[in-house]
């Protein structure tokens, strides 16, 4: 086992697509942790989804041995982190497990929104930051400009920045030497009781729950009785080990080390990510600081297409929740879609990834409802309700006021796109506080936006306006009073709960008209005319009429007087009138799926 003074724990943080995973590949090659014949691009990205999308979704730990220029051999524990704003909780847990962070900046892009956010997170955790200017071998690279931005925007001395290239391997030795020299040895090792922080976990069919831990004090070895401080669950350790980068069993995990602990816990709800692991017979008094409860920001209903797969969906969500602390779910039912779950996500990308993982890893056919956020509803009796589902909203007459969540967004855009960007912010009911100039080509807009407005297409529109050069980071803001209404869709006079939504008064009519037109295209025609209406309270604000299927009642009437034809037509008219009064319109599953997926 290495001396604690020769252990360094660090992570790589950066804006999305600035080269974190590629740099990790080079570090693994340089330290000979992975043999060249086993090496492949994006080695730490284990999920198919990560490799396809070219993004990191989960934090990935790995232990490397490095002989420094001072002659000592150091154990370097690296955690590769995601860059997208939706996975910032993954980043915050990784930072709590480290003493230092390599902050990557793309030499051609410069400091971007998420770079600032991640640097702030690292400084709050009191980490040593090593700035690295990556991709310096690109033709469009401006390393000197990137250095200046490091000093101006992040307030980190520019001469500390290391010039490197994750692709060609330039500057890799400089980074490793900087980690050894600048990152302090593991902290809190002298705490009297054993403590380890659970920064990730996963469920294995054969081994049960496997927790990924950073040991702060004491040692953990097979046979030890352990306890989880948040849930109080007790268990026995079956196996411990390190990542190199695959799991490799070890005799014990000593202070400062990063590794995994296999317990005989089978109930996935007993393990919380961010919890502290301690010995059952010599328990620690207080947990490792830095853990915070995660708050989902976007909610959506997930339902199985085949109702018999409800239990399978429930088991799949339970296993995903242990691997992803930000996912929350509760059971709910819908008249149209049957039994399913109301799930909470950190953002839209997070929601998309979870749905894709359910389809691939658990072989489930699912449908999701329109995403929504949590609204605060105050009724006349002074009662406060938190509502994430339109069907739970009280009648309009009882509501005194409603508040919606906002986000404080920092948007980096080229100077040429300011006008279009401000128009988009205004369209989404946002307010731009101030504009900071980063350099002669880029500006940063600080604005407050309603969370509901940025859910669906804001990021796509931002990218198209700025031709891909814009970036956004946001944090949860305050609740503000807003003029919100519940929009109902009625088919033949009956409300359809799956299409209900909570919208701002100014958007109600356009949203209602769009949904009515869409339903008119998708619904099968009946023997009578069907009214498709959008309503707010009792007021109809949009309507489309779906024509009836024509039945030729005159086909059997040949020749004769016009009165014979009139008699048959009047009889048909009466029949249609009666059918319209008692007839039920059943909306086919495909119509729900197409509308909810918004397929054209």
What can you see in these coordinates?
With 600 residues, the protein is of the alpha+beta class. It folds into five domains: 4-182, P-loop containing nucleotide triphosphate hydrolases (Rossmann fold, 3-Layer(aba) Sandwich), CATH 3.40.50.300; 195-279, Beta Barrel (Elongation Factor Tu (Ef-tu), domain 3); 298-368, Alpha-Beta Plaits (2-Layer Sandwich), CATH 3.30.70.870; 401-482, Alpha-Beta Plaits (2-Layer Sandwich), CATH 3.30.70.240; 487-498 and 506-597, Elongation factor 4, C-terminal domain (Alpha-Beta Plaits, 2-Layer Sandwich), CATH 3.30.70.2570. The strands form five sheets. Strands 2-3-1-4-5-6 form a six-stranded mixed sheet, with helices on both faces. Helix 7 (310-323) packs across helix 8 (348-361) and helix 11 (505-522) crosses helix 13 (589-597). The longest helix is centred in the C-terminal third of the chain and has 21 residues, at 562-582.
Question: What is the topological layout?
Answer:
Blueprint: E1 7-14, H1 20-30, H2 48-53, E2 60-67, E3 73-80, H3 88-96, E4 100-106, H4 113-124, E5 128-134, H5 143-154, E6 162-163, H6 172-182, E7 195-204, E8 208-217, E9 225-228, E10 234-243, E11 247-250, E12 258-263, E13 276-279, E14 298-304, H7 310-323, E15 328-334, E16 338-345, H8 348-361, E17 366-368, E18 375-379, E19 384-387, E20 399-414, H9 418-427, E21 431-437, E22 442-450, H10 458-465, E23 471-482, E24 484-491, E25 494-495, E26 501-504, H11 505-522, E27 530-536, E28 539-546, H12 562-582, H13 589-597
Parallel strand pairs: 1-3, 1-4, 4-5, 5-6
Antiparallel strand pairs: 2-3, 7-8, 7-13, 8-12, 9-10, 9-13, 10-11, 10-12, 14-16, 14-17, 15-16, 18-19, 18-20, 20-22, 20-23, 21-22, 24-25, 24-26, 24-27, 27-28
């Amino acid at each position: 086992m290495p001396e604690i003074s020769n252990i360094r724990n660090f992570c790589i943080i950066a804006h999305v697509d600035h080269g974190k995973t590629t740099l990790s590949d080079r570090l693994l090659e340089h330290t000979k942790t992975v043999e060249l014949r086993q090496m492949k691009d994006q080695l730490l990205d284990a999920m198919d989804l990560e490799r396809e999308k070219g993004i990191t979704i989960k934090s990935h730990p790995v232990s490397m041995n490095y002989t420094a220029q001072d002659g000592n051999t150091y154990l370097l524990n690296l955690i590769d982190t995601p860059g997208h704003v939706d996975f910032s909780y993954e980043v915050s847990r990784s930072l709590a497990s480290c003493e230092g962070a390599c902050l990557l900046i793309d030499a051609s892009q410069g400091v971007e929104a998420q770079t600032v956010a991640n640097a702030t997170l690292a400084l709050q955790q009191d980490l040593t930051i090593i700035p690295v200017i990556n991709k310096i071998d690109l033709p469009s690279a401006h390393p000197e400009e990137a250095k200046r931005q490091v000093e101006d925007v992040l307030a980190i001395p520019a001469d500390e920045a290391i010039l490197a290239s994750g692709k060609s391997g330039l500057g890799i030795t400089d980074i490793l030497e900087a980690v050894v020299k600048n990152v302090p040895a593991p902290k809190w090792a002298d705490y009297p009781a054993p403590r380890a922080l659970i920064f990730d976990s996963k469920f294995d069919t054969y081994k049960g729950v496997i927790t990924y831990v950073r040991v702060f004090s004491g040692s953990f070895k097979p046979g030890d009785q352990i306890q989880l401080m948040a849930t109080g669950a007790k268990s026995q350790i079956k196996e411990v080990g390190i990542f190199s980068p695959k799991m490799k069993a070890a005799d014990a995990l000593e202070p400062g080390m990063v590794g995994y602990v296999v317990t005989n816990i089978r109930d996935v709800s007993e393990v919380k990510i961010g919890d502290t692991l301690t010995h059952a017979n010599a328990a620690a008094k207080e947990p490792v600081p830095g853990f915070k409860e995660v708050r989902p920001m976007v909610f959506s209903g997930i339902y199985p297409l085949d109702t018999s797969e409800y239990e399978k969906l429930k088991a799949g969500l339970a296993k995903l929740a242990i691997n992803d602390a930000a996912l929350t779910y509760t059971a709910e039912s819908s008249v149209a879609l049957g039994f399913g779950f109301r799930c909470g996500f950190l953002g839209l990308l997070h929601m998309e990834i979870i749905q894709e993982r359910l389809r691939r890893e658990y072989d489930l056919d699912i449908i999701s409802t329109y995403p929504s956020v949590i609204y605060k509803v105050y009724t006349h009796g002074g009662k406060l309700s938190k509502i994430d589902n339109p069907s739970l909203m009280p009648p309009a007459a009882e509501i005194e006021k409603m508040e919606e969540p906002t986000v404080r967004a920092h948007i980096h855009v080229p100077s040429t796109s300011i006008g279009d960007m401000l128009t988009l912010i205004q369209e989404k009911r946002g307010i731009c506080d101030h504009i900071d100039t980063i350099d002669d080509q880029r500006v940063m807009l600080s604005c407050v936006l309603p969370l509901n407005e940025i859910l669906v297409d804001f990021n796509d529109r931002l990218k198209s306006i700025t031709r891909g050069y814009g970036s956004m980071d946001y944090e949860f803001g305050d609740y503000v009073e807003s003029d919100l209404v519940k929009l109902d869709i009625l088919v033949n006079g009956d409300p359809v709960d799956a299409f209900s939504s909570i919208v701002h008064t100014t958007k109600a009519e356009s949203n209602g008209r769009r949904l009515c037109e869409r339903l008119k295209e998708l619904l099968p025609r009946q023997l009578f005319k069907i009214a498709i209406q959008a309503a707010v309270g009792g007021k109809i604000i949009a309507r489309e009429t779906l024509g009836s299927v024509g039945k030729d009642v005159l086909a059997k009437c040949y020749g004769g007087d016009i009165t014979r034809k009139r008699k048959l037509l009047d009889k048909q008219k009466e029949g249609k009138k009666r059918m319209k009064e008692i007839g039920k319109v059943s909306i086919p599953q495909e119509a729900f799926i197409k509308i909810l997926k918004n397929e054209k």
